[in-house]
Amino acid sequence: MAGIDGKMYENMVISAANALENQKEDINNLNVFPIPDGDTGDNMFMTIDSGVSSAEGMEEPTLGDIAGKLAKGMLLGARGNSGVILSRIFAGIAKGFEGVEKADIPTLGQALERGVRESYNAVSEPTEGTILTVYREAVQYANGRISKDTTLSRYFDDFTEEVQNSLLRTPELLNVLKEAGVVDSGGAGLFYIAQGMKDALS
Asked: What is the pTM (predicted TM-score) of this model?
Protein backbone atom coordinates (compact mmCIF):
# COMPACT_ATOMS: atom_id res chain seq x y z
CA MET A 1 0.00 0.00 0.00
CA ALA A 2 1.75 3.13 -1.24
CA GLY A 3 1.86 6.28 0.86
CA ILE A 4 2.25 10.02 0.61
CA ASP A 5 5.30 12.08 1.63
CA GLY A 6 5.87 15.78 2.14
CA LYS A 7 7.04 16.65 -1.36
CA MET A 8 4.20 14.74 -2.97
CA TYR A 9 1.61 16.43 -0.76
CA GLU A 10 3.06 19.85 -1.55
CA ASN A 11 2.93 19.11 -5.29
CA MET A 12 -0.69 17.99 -4.96
CA VAL A 13 -1.70 21.23 -3.22
CA ILE A 14 0.20 23.32 -5.82
CA SER A 15 -1.62 21.44 -8.59
CA ALA A 16 -4.93 22.04 -6.76
CA ALA A 17 -4.19 25.78 -6.56
CA ASN A 18 -3.43 25.87 -10.31
CA ALA A 19 -6.67 24.04 -11.15
CA LEU A 20 -8.63 26.45 -8.97
CA GLU A 21 -7.00 29.48 -10.58
CA ASN A 22 -7.96 28.21 -14.04
CA GLN A 23 -11.60 27.72 -13.06
CA LYS A 24 -12.23 30.57 -10.60
CA GLU A 25 -14.46 32.56 -12.98
CA ASP A 26 -16.72 29.55 -13.51
CA ILE A 27 -16.91 29.08 -9.73
CA ASN A 28 -17.67 32.80 -9.22
CA ASN A 29 -20.58 32.50 -11.65
CA LEU A 30 -22.20 29.74 -9.54
CA ASN A 31 -22.10 31.83 -6.36
CA VAL A 32 -25.68 32.34 -5.06
CA PHE A 33 -25.33 31.14 -1.45
CA PRO A 34 -25.09 32.46 1.26
CA ILE A 35 -24.99 35.77 -0.65
CA PRO A 36 -24.71 36.13 -4.44
CA ASP A 37 -21.51 38.18 -4.46
CA GLY A 38 -19.72 36.23 -7.20
CA ASP A 39 -16.37 35.83 -5.43
CA THR A 40 -16.23 32.22 -4.19
CA GLY A 41 -13.65 31.20 -6.81
CA ASP A 42 -11.45 34.22 -6.06
CA ASN A 43 -11.70 33.66 -2.30
CA MET A 44 -10.89 29.95 -2.48
CA PHE A 45 -7.97 30.58 -4.82
CA MET A 46 -6.50 33.38 -2.67
CA THR A 47 -6.82 31.14 0.40
CA ILE A 48 -5.03 28.10 -1.09
CA ASP A 49 -2.48 30.31 -2.86
CA SER A 50 -1.60 31.92 0.47
CA GLY A 51 -0.83 28.43 1.81
CA VAL A 52 1.31 27.53 -1.20
CA SER A 53 3.28 30.81 -0.95
CA SER A 54 3.98 30.35 2.75
CA ALA A 55 5.33 26.81 2.22
CA GLU A 56 7.75 27.70 -0.60
CA GLY A 57 11.42 26.91 -0.11
CA MET A 58 11.12 24.23 2.59
CA GLU A 59 14.01 21.80 2.16
CA GLU A 60 12.86 18.16 2.10
CA PRO A 61 10.01 18.66 4.56
CA THR A 62 8.28 15.80 6.34
CA LEU A 63 4.60 15.36 5.57
CA GLY A 64 3.66 16.75 8.99
CA ASP A 65 5.85 19.84 8.55
CA ILE A 66 4.63 20.77 5.07
CA ALA A 67 0.97 20.10 5.94
CA GLY A 68 1.29 22.38 8.98
CA LYS A 69 2.96 25.13 6.97
CA LEU A 70 0.39 24.99 4.16
CA ALA A 71 -2.52 25.02 6.64
CA LYS A 72 -1.11 27.95 8.61
CA GLY A 73 -0.68 29.98 5.42
CA MET A 74 -4.26 29.22 4.39
CA LEU A 75 -5.64 30.20 7.80
CA LEU A 76 -3.77 33.52 7.65
CA GLY A 77 -4.87 34.18 4.06
CA ALA A 78 -8.45 32.87 4.30
CA ARG A 79 -11.01 35.01 2.41
CA GLY A 80 -14.78 34.76 2.65
CA ASN A 81 -16.90 31.89 4.01
CA SER A 82 -15.62 29.39 1.46
CA GLY A 83 -12.00 30.33 2.12
CA VAL A 84 -12.42 29.98 5.88
CA ILE A 85 -14.02 26.53 5.48
CA LEU A 86 -11.30 25.49 3.03
CA SER A 87 -8.57 26.63 5.42
CA ARG A 88 -10.17 24.65 8.24
CA ILE A 89 -10.36 21.51 6.08
CA PHE A 90 -6.60 21.76 5.53
CA ALA A 91 -6.02 22.61 9.21
CA GLY A 92 -7.77 19.37 10.15
CA ILE A 93 -5.72 17.41 7.62
CA ALA A 94 -2.55 18.96 9.06
CA LYS A 95 -3.57 17.83 12.56
CA GLY A 96 -3.99 14.32 11.21
CA PHE A 97 -0.47 14.46 9.75
CA GLU A 98 1.22 15.96 12.85
CA GLY A 99 4.54 14.25 13.51
CA VAL A 100 4.14 12.02 10.43
CA GLU A 101 7.01 11.69 7.95
CA LYS A 102 5.09 9.65 5.37
CA ALA A 103 1.46 8.50 5.59
CA ASP A 104 -0.06 5.23 4.44
CA ILE A 105 -3.58 5.25 2.98
CA PRO A 106 -5.46 4.62 6.27
CA THR A 107 -3.53 7.50 7.89
CA LEU A 108 -4.40 9.70 4.90
CA GLY A 109 -8.07 8.76 5.30
CA GLN A 110 -7.99 9.58 9.02
CA ALA A 111 -6.35 12.96 8.29
CA LEU A 112 -9.04 13.85 5.75
CA GLU A 113 -11.65 12.78 8.33
CA ARG A 114 -10.08 15.28 10.77
CA GLY A 115 -10.67 17.88 8.07
CA VAL A 116 -14.39 17.04 8.13
CA ARG A 117 -14.61 17.63 11.89
CA GLU A 118 -12.56 20.85 11.76
CA SER A 119 -14.61 22.35 8.94
CA TYR A 120 -17.97 21.57 10.56
CA ASN A 121 -16.74 23.02 13.86
CA ALA A 122 -15.70 26.22 12.06
CA VAL A 123 -19.31 27.07 11.20
CA SER A 124 -21.83 27.99 13.90
CA GLU A 125 -24.75 26.64 11.86
CA PRO A 126 -23.48 24.20 9.20
CA THR A 127 -25.67 24.17 6.08
CA GLU A 128 -26.01 20.94 4.11
CA GLY A 129 -25.78 21.23 0.33
CA THR A 130 -22.55 23.24 0.56
CA ILE A 131 -18.81 22.48 0.41
CA LEU A 132 -19.19 20.92 3.89
CA THR A 133 -21.51 18.20 2.58
CA VAL A 134 -19.49 17.62 -0.58
CA TYR A 135 -16.24 17.17 1.35
CA ARG A 136 -17.79 14.99 4.09
CA GLU A 137 -19.51 12.63 1.65
CA ALA A 138 -16.39 12.29 -0.51
CA VAL A 139 -14.21 11.45 2.51
CA GLN A 140 -16.75 8.92 3.79
CA TYR A 141 -17.01 7.28 0.38
CA ALA A 142 -13.25 7.08 -0.25
CA ASN A 143 -12.52 5.89 3.29
CA GLY A 144 -15.22 3.24 3.02
CA ARG A 145 -13.45 1.77 -0.01
CA ILE A 146 -9.95 1.51 1.51
CA SER A 147 -8.53 -2.01 1.36
CA LYS A 148 -5.01 -3.43 1.64
CA ASP A 149 -4.70 -2.98 -2.15
CA THR A 150 -5.73 0.69 -2.26
CA THR A 151 -3.14 2.94 -3.89
CA LEU A 152 -2.91 6.71 -3.48
CA SER A 153 -4.13 7.10 -7.05
CA ARG A 154 -7.12 4.80 -6.43
CA TYR A 155 -8.01 6.65 -3.23
CA PHE A 156 -8.09 10.01 -5.03
CA ASP A 157 -10.06 8.49 -7.93
CA ASP A 158 -12.74 7.45 -5.41
CA PHE A 159 -12.56 10.77 -3.58
CA THR A 160 -12.88 12.88 -6.74
CA GLU A 161 -15.68 10.71 -8.13
CA GLU A 162 -17.75 11.23 -4.99
CA VAL A 163 -16.96 14.97 -4.84
CA GLN A 164 -18.55 15.22 -8.29
CA ASN A 165 -21.54 13.04 -7.38
CA SER A 166 -22.15 14.92 -4.14
CA LEU A 167 -21.79 18.27 -5.92
CA LEU A 168 -24.50 17.29 -8.40
CA ARG A 169 -26.82 16.51 -5.46
CA THR A 170 -26.38 19.91 -3.77
CA PRO A 171 -29.46 21.53 -5.42
CA GLU A 172 -31.61 18.77 -3.86
CA LEU A 173 -30.40 19.86 -0.41
CA LEU A 174 -30.43 23.63 -0.82
CA ASN A 175 -33.48 25.23 -2.39
CA VAL A 176 -31.73 28.47 -3.33
CA LEU A 177 -29.42 26.44 -5.61
CA LYS A 178 -32.34 24.58 -7.15
CA GLU A 179 -34.18 27.82 -7.89
CA ALA A 180 -31.08 29.35 -9.51
CA GLY A 181 -30.37 26.16 -11.46
CA VAL A 182 -26.79 25.85 -10.18
CA VAL A 183 -24.67 23.58 -7.98
CA ASP A 184 -22.93 24.92 -4.86
CA SER A 185 -20.01 27.19 -5.74
CA GLY A 186 -17.82 26.12 -2.80
CA GLY A 187 -18.45 22.47 -3.65
CA ALA A 188 -17.48 23.22 -7.26
CA GLY A 189 -14.25 24.76 -5.99
CA LEU A 190 -13.59 21.58 -4.02
CA PHE A 191 -14.14 19.52 -7.18
CA TYR A 192 -11.38 21.41 -9.00
CA ILE A 193 -9.11 21.07 -5.96
CA ALA A 194 -9.70 17.30 -5.90
CA GLN A 195 -9.13 17.13 -9.66
CA GLY A 196 -5.88 19.09 -9.32
CA MET A 197 -4.63 16.84 -6.53
CA LYS A 198 -5.50 13.75 -8.56
CA ASP A 199 -3.77 15.13 -11.67
CA ALA A 200 -0.55 15.62 -9.68
CA LEU A 201 -0.44 11.86 -9.11
CA SER A 202 -0.61 10.90 -12.80
From this structure: 0.96
